[in-house]
Amino acid sequence: MENILEKIQELKRERQAVILAHNYQRPEVQDIADYVGDSLGLSIQAASTDAKVIIFCGVHFMAETAKIFSPEKTVLIPDPDAGCPMADMITGEQLRGLKAQHPDAQVLCYVNTSAEVKAECDLCCTSANAVTMVQEVLKDAKEIIFAPDQYLAAYVAEKTGRTFIPWHGFCPTHAKILPEDVEREKARHPNAVVLAHPECRPAVTHLADIVASTEGMCRYVQETAATEIIVGTEVGIIHRMRKENPGKVFYPVSEQAVCPNMKRITLEKVLWSLQDMVHEVNPPLEIARRAYASIEKMLNYRS
Ligand code: CIZ
Ligand code: SF4
User: Fold this and answer.
1) Do residue 18 and residue 75 come from a single domain?
2) How far is the CA of 233 from the centre of ligand 2 (A)?
């Protein structure tokens, strides 16, 4: 163990690399990272460093976003098969088909999409700013296509009173969280506050005290007076919450909420990635340029 950690640090210096870990990464991967956070925050943070190489410990679309923000840096993902099933539920071609059916609609896409899909959108949003984007940037839009997450779309529709032309994507990990899980944990821990991610089913978010993005959750748990918290998102985030809040107790709402793609990234793969300079993520320049245009419009509305 000691050995692999030392090797990673040594190679990181040699390559002038920065290591980013998403909030859902394995504890030991989070612990070697320079920054831990959500996909947009990490991509923005990495762009502001003078590193030559970014090692993105997360899923493919996140590494693409990092490359879109840092075209001059080499972006590597330690496992090229770490994809996001939700992002893969819509392709550029499918979105072009939907746009052809609704030529007057504005197209809002969640960050959990490929660069190719972002390039087809008018506007991108995160789970932290989706409500604001609809209320402010799209307030005059007559029709809005919202892809790919049907549950995030349902949550934003409830909050804003707007309806969307939906796409039927979802996150298989968050879909595993059921209302009975929330009821069970609430009964076990009656004083705990319940957090849920908006990728959860509406039947789950309706039972939560707070619905928030991963960064919103991390901020909330630091600020709240509550000392017991039931966490309704991917279990990996609990490592960071425990580290940042040693006096508080965290319970996963469901042990089933594990993203197998996030867990594909291991310390060994981080080491090999640095050693062999693999696996590069580099969307075509024209796609990256158009994807950036849809991301850029949300940068003033980050949370
Ligand atoms: O963009 C991210 O990092 C995701 C997918 C989740 C979140 O709520 O931060
Ligand atoms: Fe995709 Fe869900 Fe995994 Fe996030 S937790 S990367 S949305 S499958």
Assistant:
1) yes
2) 10
Would residue 96 count as lying in a domain?
yes
What residue numbers does the annotated binding site cover?
Answer: 22, 39, 84, 110-112, 127, 171, 197-199, 214, 259
> How high is the pLDDT of residue 10?
98
pLDDT of residue 1: 66
Residue 185 belongs to domain with CATH number:
3.40.50.10800
Task: Locate all alpha helices (DSSP H) within 83-168, ordered by sequence.
Answer: 92-101, 115-119, 130-132, 150-160
Task: Decide if 101 is inside a domain.
Answer: yes
State if residue 42 touches ligand 1 by the CB under 6 angstroms criterion: no
Query: What's the pLDDT at 161?
Result: 98
Q: d(Cα 172, Cα 149) in Å, to the nearest integer? A: 11
Domain of 158 in residue numbering reads as: 87-171+290-296
- The Å distance, Cα 142 to ligand 2 centre, comes to 30
Which pLDDT tens digit goes with each residue over 129-166?
Answer: 999 999 999 999 999 999 999 999 999 999 999 999 98
In angstroms, rounded to a whole number, what is the distance separating the alpha carbons of residues 228 and 251?
8
Of residues 242, 301, 295, the one with CA closest to residue 113 = 295
Looking at this predicted complex, what is its ipTM?
Answer: 0.97
301 belongs to a structural domain: no
Give the count of domains, the chain.
3
Query: 269 and 239 share a domain?
Result: no
Question: Considering the domain boundaries, does residue 302 fall inside one?
Answer: no
The closest residue, in CA terms, to atom 5 on ligand 2 is 259
Q: Tell whether 271 and 220 lie within a shared domain.
A: no
Question: How far, rounded to the nearest angstrom, does the alpha carbon of residue 125 sit from its chain's CA centroid?
Answer: 11
- Give Cβ neighbours of residue 135 (< 8 Å, ≥ 6 apart): 160
Tens of pLDDT, residue by residue over 190-236, are 999 999 999 999 999 999 999 999 999 999 999 999 999 999 999 99
Residue 234 Cβ inside 6 Å of ligand 2? The answer reads: yes
